[in-house]
Here is the input.
Amino acid sequence: MIIDLSHDFHDLMPGVRFSNKAGETIELTAHIKPFMTHCESTAHYQGKASFEITDVAFQTSVGTKMDAPRHRFEGGEDIAALTLDRMILDTVVIDARHAIPGQELGWADLKVPQPLAGKAVLVNFGWDRHWGTEVYRQHPFLSREVLSGLLHAGIALFGVDCSNADSTQDLERPAHTWFLNDGILIVENLKDLERLHGQSCRFFSIPLKVRDAAAFPVRAFAEILP
Here is the structure.
């Protein structure tokens, strides 16, 4: 069985919000519209066929997406440099659905399945239920102690069903700094992770092979194994 773990990518979708140098609020999003409609193209084929070509513009940190090391480190690996074996991994899911907005979760708050080495570790906060709301921006997060433990356990990928793998109040961004420095990929804005509990599964998170991209949207999904 295949379980889709991606949010729909759509016109004017919600994204990261921040202030620019002028103090203006900027929200990342996508713009999707026809570049050529069926009506516009039919004359090219003398009415025998028609085609639509779609114009899509977006920032790379939008939707269910992967961060490559270049996202945190200048000169780091870009999305095109990532090999497929780093994006197709056996999976461990941590149940953190008891978390409340803005909560820091330590080891005492979690039951972490073992072993972790070489696996995709996905944290199920259940925050996808708040997608598109202001609550989504007030997500919980794992403590530095837990992040350090996952790093030293040798995980291969870290995924969350919220907008950021880090607390937005921690300016060092330890998950991004520690994991990406070690080549551990990060996937954010996942959904439906509760469907993976108690399952043996393999996680797929596949972006386009884009040169010079620091991050990129992915189609994330899980294959439930026998």
User: Anything to note?
Assistant: The longest strand covers residues 88-95. Residues 41 and 47 are 9 Å apart (CA to CA).
